Amino acid sequence: MDYFPIFLKLADEPVVVVGGGEVAARKIDLLLRTGAKVTVVAPELIESLASLAAAGSIVHLAAEFQPEHLNGARIAIAATDKHSINAWVAHQAERRNIPVNVVDDRELSRFIVPAIVDRSPVVVAVASSGDAPVLTRRLREKLETFLPQRLGVLAKLAGKLRPAVKARVEEPAARRRFWERFFDGPLASDLLAGRSDAATVEARVEESLRAASESAKPVGEVVLVGAGPGDPGLLTLRALRALQNADVVLYDRLVSTQIVDLARRDAERIYVGKAPGDAHASQEQINALLVKLARQGKRVCRLKGGDPFIFGRGGEELETLAAEGIRFEVVPGITAAAGCAAYAGIPLTHRDYAQSLTFVTGHCKGETDKVDWDLLARPGQTVVFYMGLGHLESIVARLRERGVPAERAAAIIEHGTQATQRVVTGTLADLVHKAGEARIESPALLIVGEVTRLHDALHWFNANGQRGDEISALAFTNEGRLSA
Ligand SMILES: C[S@@+](CC[C@H](N)C(=O)[O-])C[C@H]1O[C@@H](n2cnc3c(N)ncnc32)[C@H](O)[C@@H]1O
């Protein structure tokens, strides 16, 4: 970080602005909003500033800048159109240890003025250390549209209620929970939408305060969250909220660190991943830990790769919680099949090639034995095998035994949706060999069906800056079907 971000209290404090044109006027407008006592040093003022001076809102020193004009100033702003004068102001301010900003000149400035979104008392400031002012303006515009206009009304009401809430909900965790429910709840949204005024909301808050102070012991809960296949951009808004509200995050091996990092900074993070062949934490231990944490009154975010109800054992965890009477919620995620197929340019259904879609686990002998292979062998469908990499050879053999032709198209997607994604396409005849040659590793998804042929024409994603056909040329795809 090149600059230390602060908000400076300037009410009734003397501030000197050198320059009397439009640029100075914009800064003065901001300064006046803080209640600063502004003195403008300039031989002449533009009309709007002259009116402010006439109304007594600012003091005008009709003179060329002299160093002593800075005496006593808390901060100074140089906003003339002459570089030499601005540099002189900056030099003199530095000599006096007065923080100085020279408009549009970061070399001469001690501080920079960020782009702001003003929903006072909430103020959002955006700066790029002077590197990309247009980008910061864009960000500001986005925030302008994103932040409700009446956010300030909500913040003011919260400020008014704070002492009462503090007195009546003594336990800090319960208090935080009260505020989170308040800001996420219907009272706040009514106020933000203008459906309710502050006085009505205040009365309704009184009611929830009574409830909060009566239930002294915080109630824990578990939110079972699907984190998607890897790309953090595929996280849902609800998943993000669950992550940010959590006191503890329990996460699996397939959840990327970028996603875990979205949790609150003070949230405890517990890794409970199970790598193939590795006995890290058993399912029973994870279930017991979820119960224990919720009983301690914690809000637990249980993060799972993809969707928690698709080969994620989410159902088992919830059965335990339900049996123990623990409150829970489920946030669905983008399952690996949907994410990987989309990022590989493979539509899972297509009117010409596949009218049905099946997700199967290729995990272990016991489970694959329960699979109806005759059903999977039928034409006109797409079959997605999760956890099938280790059993690729036997999956292909079983399909072939059931009469699936050797030329049936298939693909393997490794690290789908992530920067390291690779796609190997081929047929049942050569896929095992190609996957071996490319040294495909877990996690990888096997898709069997004619839709995989569309990859050549529809692939679009690769995070390494290469074109998709360049990746194909690395011999991961079936050369016979290469367009390049
Ligand atoms: C235990 S299952 C979890 C599935 C998850 N609940 C879901 O809905 O995607 C793990 C398997 O999902 C597949 N998988 C998950 N993420 C993947 C990714 N980013 N790329 C490829 N396959 C993935 C692999 O087959 C992996 O072995």
From TrEMBL:
Residues 220-484 are annotated as: Uroporphyrinogen-III C-methyltransferase. GO terms for biological process: cobalamin biosynthetic process; methylation; siroheme biosynthetic process. It comes from the Bacteria. Residues 222-431 form the Tetrapyrrole methylase domain. Keywords: Cobalamin biosynthesis, Lyase, Methyltransferase, Multifunctional enzyme, NAD, Oxidoreductase, Phosphoprotein, Porphyrin biosynthesis, S-adenosyl-L-methionine, Transferase. Residues 1-205 are annotated as: Precorrin-2 dehydrogenase / sirohydrochlorin ferrochelatase. NCBIfam families: cobA_cysG_Cterm, cysG_Nterm, PRK06136.1, PRK10637.1. This is Siroheme synthase. It comes from Povalibacter uvarum. The gene is cysG.
